[in-house]
């Protein structure tokens, strides 16, 4: 059996295990075992991938496999990974693993919650291992549907509204995607759905012109592209902790990954034609998200807008179409995934103690829950791009890469985008100053306790990942930039 | 020189050690760990300096640039990559000595000053972090490494200013410091990226052909880098964070906001100096004018402040202005004349670090004794605190530029360089030097002489500080006295690396001495006695000016207006509103529209067979009519 299929198999087995679980302990055992196995598997995969590359394997995708499952449309279950997918799988498994601990005490309907949670992660893993457009699309849909229930049932606030909005908007995006995929399929001669094979063919320019924006928008909705980002603040604000983590941490990355792997890879000429327009939109996303975050009063809204800004930077870097900037985009996905997951985990932990996320009602948490407060500061500093954490590495790679486009238009966009690093500092420090520092006057809050062991464990895992990436970026950078090469060279050939 | 890596490694280990496990340690242990580590680093730095300067010059007569360590940390392309390493050249070795010396003094001093404070271990952890970052900054082998450590010193400064995190002023000050410097760093970053793109390297020595190709870009890139330097070095108008940063513990002010971090901008200009002088002399002039204006502005404000730390803060800003001017005025290509300003700037950086740290630590002792920063609570303290008094006086004389203290020599060189640039610049800077002497002695008299606040002192008798605090004062005072004499500074540090002989320009020296003595005399006349009629009447007569200067010419209000009113209320709030009410509403309208369509069509599906039948037959009739008509 192909090693990649295990990524789908484990969640399936976990769901089976959850189904037959009788009590909370069994559920936890299943979840912890399963997510640990996923984490171990993705680490093993990364190691195996690197050693194969070092041994001289120069195919674009490794560990490939293909089984036909609907011959009339040439749909195959084909899998394979390159460096980009490897790091995305690594990210997903870290988030699923820590998310399990973050929802340790979730009530009610624990079993059902974890069932949907596991299904969601199945979709995510399936998406990243697929090489076949249709299979990819299927896994994408598998990842979207559970989100509706997870937010609608276990969420908080205006949860039904948020769940509906999120699902409808993303579904709208996937309608575009389906059209786009079929357009690519027929444009490339209706012979194969396999991305690698289509990349060898040439899709006629007229077809690219029409279908590039369709596919890019379809994935862009998920990547919080302005002006299709409004599902994100409401959705994140209402979602339960681990779902926010998984959603902002991994699901939003599906958007960037899809844009790169399908839209830009298969339709490079379309990308050249439409690139400037979308670049303007992403530049707006970056600055607009950051500026919106400055005035928000709900912690989750602040992070949701910050995500709009940071995910905007991912698409921005991809559209800069240089090898360095694309590497930076992937690094930014990785880094943003980890940082946002950490933020949402912390906000969830604070919320479940104080029952408010309004920054005007929180004060002096440093004295009351020092561990969470220090965690929050670390997450904040990572988010504003402090050297030593992953955000810095990602942002600097993005900006250095973007600067290689020397024409005036790209330069102006780049300089506008760089201003976001100042605005980020403003909204992060505003929150830190307001809620963590000072003296708490709320009697109720003074009685609160600091993090429990599983919460500490979640945070520590994420900090290690963020700092690890920030301190020793060399190997990840190498892993990604080699895999970015074929896609970028496709774009460079006009 | 491979051992130099330890200079970075020791504090780098010390920080996580204290940060993670410090809370479980008793205060004394945590403090000792930090101090011992820094002590070891200090010794290593001295050994480095001895080895480096002792090894002598190369055949060309310059000190070699050594890079004992350099690893590729993050590769972008073949030529562009961020390296991490250690580079030793005269200025970085000099900075190693300055930083470790002041840092060690502050570590020792803090034992006494921070005794019993909650968060004592955290304080030492942050000090280690700061020392690590600052050392990493000065030994950087490339501009990007410098930027990385630049950001790290920024964050350690943020953490230390906000050390008393329950105090609203401290929170606001730390935030302000970080954001203002971050804003400046944006310029620095863009400068680096431009530099990297056009030079195809992040090292300090680009290839000659790239330099030729870059043309007008290089002055812009260097100018943008200077913006970053101006932010960190508190040049007008980006200086506004520094006075507020005094909310941090006083030893921190001594270390970060007087001696080391705030001169990073000067160091940056010095580091890029060969490029500045070779390709962007106009930019260098801008540096000089900005420096001169800042020096003047800060000196006027310092004359009227009542908080002793604020006076020192503005004095720091003014003195950094002097250093910038010194670097900026040497645009003559003649190595001898051109090199004077560079050498003088670096020399002043060295001497200023010592006596300004001394002043701040002395101020710390005073604040420790009277529990306030305000001058009104002091006066006549010379009786109670003899050691502090004498050392403070030495530092005041040094900063005023009185022979034979170190400040005299460095300031004299700066003035000589200014006169060589243009007589106007020379006279302006001499006048500002006079103002320096005046406000420093105003400070001195108001603290140690003047009118004693007897009521307060009766209640709580001021006392001399413990030995842990006074010993660093004495050591720094000793350095301040001898630093001008011990060694010919120009032999070690000069713009082109060749030995440079310092000549005391007797004319300039005489002028500056006379001006300084006159200013001191004026300050004595105005402030030494218990009643101060002249000062009071001047303040009354020019009350508008006095108030404006006291409020720092309302620059903070302007900044507050820009940030609060314009950015927060006029940009972000409308954007957030737009997002919720326009974009999001559009999506909601879309949903509502779909729903409305559904509602509109729904009545058709009544479920009654009769209705369906009517429509069915109506359809048949219409179709038949159409067909008949068509036929």
Protein model, in words:
The complex is a heterodimer of chains A (494) and B (631). Chain A is mainly α. Chain A has one domain (5-493). Chain A is built from 21 helices and two strands. Chain A has helices spanning 6-20, 24-54, 83-102, 110-129, 133-154, 159-187, 195-200, 205-222, 231-238, 241-266, 268-295, 299-320, 323-354, 365-368, 370-383, 390-402, 408-418, 420-436, 443-446, 453-471, 474-492; strands spanning 62-70, 75-81. In chain A, strands 1-2 form a two-stranded antiparallel ribbon. Chain A is globular. The two termini of chain A are 40 Å apart. In chain A, 63% of the residues are buried. Chain B has 631 residues and is mostly helical. Chain B contains 25 helices and two strands. Chain B has helices at 5-21, 27-54, 90-113, 120-138, 143-161, 168-199, 208-214, 217-232, 241-244, 250-259, 264-271, 273-279, 281-302, 308-328, 335-370, 386-400, 406-421, 423-448, 454-459, 467-486, 506-527, 533-541, 543-550, 555-601, 609-630; strands at 66-75, 81-88. In chain B, strands 1-2 form a two-stranded antiparallel sheet. In chain B, α2 (27-54) runs parallel beside α4 (120-138), α8 packs parallel to α13 (281-302) and α14 (308-328) runs antiparallel to α18. The radius of gyration of chain B is 31 Å and the shape is globular. The model of chain B has no long low-confidence stretch (mean pLDDT 86). Classes of the chains: A mainly alpha (494), B mainly alpha (631). At the A-B interface, α6, α11, α16, α18 and α21 of A face β1, α5, α6 and α24 of B.
């Amino acid at each position: 059996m192909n090693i990649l299929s295990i990524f789908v198999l484990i969640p399936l087995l976990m769901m089976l295990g959850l189904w037959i679980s009788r009590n909370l302990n069994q559920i936890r055992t299943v979840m912890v075992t399963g997510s640990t196995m996923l984490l171990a598997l993705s680490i093993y995969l990364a190691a195996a991938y690197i050693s194969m590359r070092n041994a001289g394997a120069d195919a674009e995708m490794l560990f490939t496999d293909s089984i036909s499952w609907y011959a009339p449309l040439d749909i195959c279950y084909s899998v394979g990974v390159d460096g980009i997918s490897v790091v995305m799988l690594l990210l997903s498994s870290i988030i699923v693993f820590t998310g399990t601990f973050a929802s340790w005490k979730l009530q009610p309907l624990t079993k059902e919650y974890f069932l949907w949670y596991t299904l969601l992660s199945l979709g995510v893993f399936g998406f990243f291992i697929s090489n076949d457009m249709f299979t990819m699309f299927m896994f994408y849909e598998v990842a979207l549907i559970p989100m509706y229930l997870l937010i609608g049932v276990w969420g908080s606030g205006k949860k039904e509204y948020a769940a509906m909005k999120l699902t409808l908007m993303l579904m709208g995006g996937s309608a575009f995607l389906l059209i786009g995929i079929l357009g690519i399929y027929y444009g490339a001669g209706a012979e194969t759905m396999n991305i690698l094979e289509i990349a060898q063919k040439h899709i006629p320019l007229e077809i690219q012109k029409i279908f590039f924006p369709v596919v890019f928008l379809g994935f862009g909705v998920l990547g919080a592209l302005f002006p299709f980002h409004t599902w994100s603040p409401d959705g994140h604000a209402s979602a339960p902790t681990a779902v926010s983590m998984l959603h902002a941490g991994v699901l939003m990355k599906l958007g960037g990954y899809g844009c790169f792997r399908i839209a830009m890879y298969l339709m490079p000429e379309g990308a050249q034609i439409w690139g400037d327009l979308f670049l303007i939109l992403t530049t707006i996303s970056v600055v607009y998200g950051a500026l919106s975050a400055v005035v928000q009063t709900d912690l989750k809204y602040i992070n949701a807008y910050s995500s709009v800004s940071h995910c905007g930077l991912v698409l921005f870097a991809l559209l800069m179409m240089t090898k360095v900037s694309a590497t930076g985009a992937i690094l930014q996905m990785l880094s943003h995934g980890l940082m946002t997951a950490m933020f949402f985990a912390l906000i969830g932990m604070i919320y479940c103690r104080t029952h408010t996320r309004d920054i005007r009602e929180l004060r002096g948490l440093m004295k009351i829950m020092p561990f969470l407060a220090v965690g929050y500061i670390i997450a904040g500093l990572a988010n504003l791009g402090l050297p030593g954490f992953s955000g810095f590495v990602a942002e600097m790679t993005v900006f250095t890469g973007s600067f290689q486009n020397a024409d005036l238009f790209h330069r102006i966009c780049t300089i506008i985008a760089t201003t976001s690093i100042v605005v980020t500092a403003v909204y992060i420090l505003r929150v830190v100053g307001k809620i963590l520092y000072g003296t708490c006057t709320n009697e109720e809050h003074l009685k609160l306790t600091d993090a429990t062991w599983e919460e500490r464990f979640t945070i520590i895992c994420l900090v290690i990942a963020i700092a690890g990436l920030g301190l020793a970026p060399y190997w990840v950078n190498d892993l990604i930039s080699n895999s970015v090469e074929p896609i970028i060279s496709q774009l460079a050939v006009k | 020189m491979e051992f130099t890596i330890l200079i970075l490694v020791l504090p780098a280990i010390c920080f996580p050690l204290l940060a993670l496990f410090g809370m479980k340690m008793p205060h004394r242990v945590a403090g000792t760990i930090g101090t011992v580590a820094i002590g070891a680093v200090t010794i290593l730095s001295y050994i480095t300096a001895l080895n480096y300067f002792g090894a002598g010059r190369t055949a060309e007569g310059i000190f070699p640039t050594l890079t004992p360590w350099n690893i590729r940390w993050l590769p972008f392309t073949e030529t562009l990559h961020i390296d991490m390493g250690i580079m030793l050249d005269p200025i970085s070795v000099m900075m190693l000595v300055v930083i470790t010396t002041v840092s060690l003094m502050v570590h020792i001093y803090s034992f006494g000053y921070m005794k019993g404070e909650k968060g004592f271990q955290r304080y030492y952890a942050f000090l280690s972090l700061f020392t690590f970052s600052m050392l990493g900054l000065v030994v950087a082998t490339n501009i990007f490494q410098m930027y990385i450590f630049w950001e790290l010193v920024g964050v350690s400064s943020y953490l230390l200013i906000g050390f008393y995190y329950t105090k609203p002023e401290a929170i606001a000050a730390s935030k302000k410091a970080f954001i203002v410097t971050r804003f400046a760093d944006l310029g620095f970053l863009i400068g680096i990226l431009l530099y990297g793109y056009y030079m195809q390297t992040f090292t300090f020595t680009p290839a000659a052909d790239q330099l030729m190709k870059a043309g007008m870009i290089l002055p812009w890139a260097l100018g943008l880098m200077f913006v970053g330097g101006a932010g960190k070095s508190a040049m007008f108008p980006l200086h506004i964070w520094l006075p507020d940063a005094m909310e941090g513990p006083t030893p921190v002010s001594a270390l970060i906001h007087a001696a080391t971090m705030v001169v990073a901008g000067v160091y940056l200009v010095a580091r890029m100096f060969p490029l500045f002088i070779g390709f962007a002399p106009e930019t260098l002039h801008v540096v000089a004018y900005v420096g001169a204006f800042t020096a003047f502005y800060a000196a006027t404000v310092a004359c009227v402040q009542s908080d002793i730390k604020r006076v020192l803060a503005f004095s720091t800003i003014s003195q950094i202005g002097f250093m910038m001017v010194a670097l900026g005025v040497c645009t003559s290509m003649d190595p001898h004349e051109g090199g004077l300003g560079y050498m003088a700037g670096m020399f002043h950086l060295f001497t200023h670090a010592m006596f300004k740290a001394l002043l701040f630590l002395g101020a710390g002792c005073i604040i420790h004794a009277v529990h306030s920063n305000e001058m009104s609570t002091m006066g006549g303290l010379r009786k109670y605190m003899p050691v502090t008094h004498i050392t403070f006086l030495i530092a005041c004389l040094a900063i005023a530029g009185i022979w034979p203290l170190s400040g005299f020599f460095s300031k004299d060189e700066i003035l000589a360089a200014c006169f060589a640039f243009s007589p106007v610049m020379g006279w302006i800077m001499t006048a500002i030097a006079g103002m320096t002497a005046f406000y420093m002695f105003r400070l001195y008299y108001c603290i140690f002489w003047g009118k004693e606040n007897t009521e307060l002192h009766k209640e709580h008798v001021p006392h001399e500080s413990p030995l842990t605090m006074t010993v660093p004062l004495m050591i720094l005072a000793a350095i301040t006295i001898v630093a001008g004499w011990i060694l010919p500074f120009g032999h070690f540090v000069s713009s082109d690396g060749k030995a440079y002989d310092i000549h005391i320009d007797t004319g300039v020296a005489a002028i500056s001495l006379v001006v300084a003595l006159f200013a001191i005399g004026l300050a004595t006349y105005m402030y030494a006695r218990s009643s101060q009629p002249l000062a009071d009447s001047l303040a009354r007569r020019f009350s508008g000016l006095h108030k404006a200067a006291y409020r720092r010419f309302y620059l903070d209000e302007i900044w507050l207006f820009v940030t609060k009113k314009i950015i927060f209320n006029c940009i972000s709030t409308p954007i957030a509103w737009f997002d919720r009410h326009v974009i999001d509403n559009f999506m909601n309208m879309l949903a509502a529209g779909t729903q409305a369509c559904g509602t509109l069509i729904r009545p058709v599906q009544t479920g009654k067979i009769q209705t369906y039948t009517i429509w069915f037959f109506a359809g048949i009739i219409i179709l038949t009519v159409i067909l008949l008509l068509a036929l």
